[in-house]
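Listing 4. Sequential folding, example run.
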Amino acid sequence: MTARARRPPPATLLYVNVVVVATCGLVYELLAATMGSYLLGDSVMQFSLVIGLYLSAMGVGAWVSRHIEGNLATRFIDVELAVALVGGLSAPILFLAFAEVQRFQVVLLGFVFVIGALVGLELPLLMRILQGEVAFKDLVSRVLSLDYAGALLASLLFPLLFVPELGLLRTSLVIGLCNAFVGLWGTWLLADQIGKVTAVRVRAVAVVALLAVGLLFSSKLTRWSEERLYSDEIVYARTSPYQRIVVTRSGSGFQLFLNGNLQFASADEYRYHESLVHPAMVAAADAGRAPRKVLILGGGDGLAAREVLAHPSVEAVTLVDLDPAMTSLAHRFAPLAQLNRQALSDPRVTIVNDDAMVWLRTAPGGWDVVIIDFPDPNSFGLGKLYTRSFYRELAARLAPDGAIAVQATSPLFARKSFWCIVRTMRSAGFAVAPYHVAVPSFGVWGFALAKKQPFTPPTTPPNVARRFLDAEAMAAMFRFPADMAEVDVEVNQLDNQMLVRYYESEWRRWQ
C-alpha cells in the first residue's frame, strides 16, 4: 500500500496566520503595558519595560525554534494554542493577582516574556512548514510585510475598538479566542502533516471552550476583579476610548477614579475645588473688574465649574475636557450632578470635548480667569499639558490682568514635581505664587496661581458661598514649611518631559 502524498498547505495559511500572530501578539503586549500603567501607575516605565522585554522575548523564541525538529505542524498548532491560552487568560489572571501577589510586577513581566517567546516561536515554525512550497524570497517578503501589517492593525484596533468597546478583560479573552480558532482551523489546513490530528484537534477545542466560558462570564469577572481593587462598592464603571471611569460608594459619600487613580471624594472635594478656583477669581478681580469670561481646562466632573458659577460676575464659562464620557457622567450620574449643582447644564457653560493643547492653538483669547484641573502628569500625553510651550500658549490668550490657577500635585509627596510646574510657568513669563492645602483624601495638595505681572497673593476670600476657604485659611495657603520649600529642578519642555520623570520617581516611593 503506497503512502499518501503530502499535500502542500493552502496559501491562506500563510496570509491569515501571520496577520493573526502579529495582531494578537501586539494586542497582548499593549494589554500588559496598559494594565501595568493602570494597576501600578508608572506608565512610562511600564511601557518601556513591556516593549523591550516583549521584543527581546521574541528573539529568544526565534532562537529556541532552531532546536525544534520533527512534526513541525503539530508543534506550530501547540504553540498557537499556548499563545491563545496564556495571552487570553493574561488580563483576568493579572487582575486577580494584583490583590494577592506582593511582587505583582514580576508576574506582569513574566506574562510578557512568555507571550513574547511563544510569538517568537510561531513565525519561524510557520516559515519552516512552508519552506519548499513557496520561493524563499517570496516567503520572507510576505511573512515580514504581513507581520508589520498585523502590528499596524493591532495598534489601530486596540485604542479605537477593543478597549473602549470590550474593556481590558474581554479584549484579552476575545483575542485569545481568535488565536485558538486559528489553531483549530490549522488542524484541518495541516491535517496531512499532523501525526495524531484528533488529539491536537481535541486540545484546540478545549482551549476554545475554556476561553469561551471565560468570555461568557467576563462581565462578572470584571466586576469581581475591580471590587477586589477598590475598598468600597462600585456603583458605576465604564471604559471610554481614553480611560477607565469607576465610581465607588462608601458611608461618607462617593469617590471617582480614573484609571485606578482617585480624582476626588465627595466628602472633602470642596476643600480642593474652593482652593483651586477662588484665589484666581479674587486675583483677577484685584485689577478692578470682576471676571466675566472663564476657561476651565479639564474638570469634566463639573466641580470646578460649580465654584466658578458661584461668582455673579461670570457671564461665560468654556469647559474643555477630552473625554465626552466624563462630561456626560457629570450630567447623568445623579449623585455627581447633585454635587456639582447641575453646573454643566447652566446656560453660561459651553462644553468642548477636545485635546486642550490642540484646541488652545485656535482658541479665542481674552480670558479673565483660566482654571487648569488636569490629572497628574503620569504620562507623556499628560505631561505635554504642563510644558513651557503650553503655558506660553495660555499667556497669549489670557487677558492682560487675568489669572491662572493650576493643580500641581503634592508639594510634600512629590516635591520636585510641584516645583517643576512652578518653575516651568515662571519660564513661560508668568509671575507665580505657589500655594497648598490639606485635603484628607489626598493629603497635602499643591496649586500655582499666576498672572502676567507681579502681584500680591490674595488673602481675602470672595463673597460667595464657601465651606472651607476663610481669610485665615487663604493666608496660610501661601506659606510653605521647610519640608515643602522650593528645590532646584529643571523646566518641563516637550523634548525632555522632566516633569513626568520627576513624578514617576517620587510617587513610586509611596506605592
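-- end of first protein; second protein begins --
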Amino acid sequence: MKPMSYVVYREEEFFVSQRFNVDDSSFGETREAAVANLKAAVACI
C-alpha cells in the first residue's frame, strides 16, 4: 500500500480520519479503528 497522509480528530463520540487533499474519510470508536477503517476504504478504491 502506498503511504498516505491523513488527520484524525474527535467529533462527538467518534474519531474521524480524513485524507489530505482527497475527499475520503472514515470513523471509529477509537483512533486505531478510524485509521483502520480509512485504510480499508482506500484499499477498495
